[in-house]
Design goal:
single chain; 4 strands; alpha+beta
Length: 139
């Protein structure tokens, strides 16, 4: 697995993440940074104290440009970025269709896994997502 040094996506923690046991939250800690290494947005939640729900989608191109330093973070550029993202969200709402698909999967029984196993499961799912939808990303 090649890791790009430029930060792209983000990892978001859903409120259901609090359902995890303290031990499993600790195991998930290293996984939270995984969104920074891929051009994906990762959403982490939990069904109960030992089962994690992961959602993956492609991050916005504008987020890539801002986070990689290609767009200087001036007040004007940030306002433009917010406007552009608002247009994208409006288009998704009007057409009832997200720009990029969302894949959802579960990692069950964290009690029997360690942090490395969890990261590998998420990374494999990201690779599968990218392979499945790569034609959308090249346009």
């Amino acid at each position: 697995m090649k890791i790009n040094p430029i930060s792209f996506g983000q990892t978001f923690i859903n409120s259901t993440f609090q359902n995890l046991s303290d031990e499993n939250k600790t195991k998930m800690g290293p996984s939270i940074a995984i969104g920074e290494y891929y051009p994906m947005d990762i959403y982490l939640g939990a069904k109960n104290d030992r089962d994690v729900v992961v959602q993956i989608t492609r991050a916005s191109e504008w987020d890539y440009l801002m986070s990689s330093g290609e767009i200087e973070p001036t007040e004007e550029n940030i306002a433009f970025l917010q406007l552009q993202k608002a247009f994208e969200y409006a288009m998704e709402y009007i057409h009832s269709k997200k720009k990029y698909p969302v894949e959802k999967f579960e990692i069950s029984n964290l009690d029997k896994m360690d942090s490395v196993d969890i990261i590998n499961r998420i990374a494999d799912a990201i690779d599968d997502y990218h392979e499945k939808y790569k034609n959308l990303f090249e346009n």
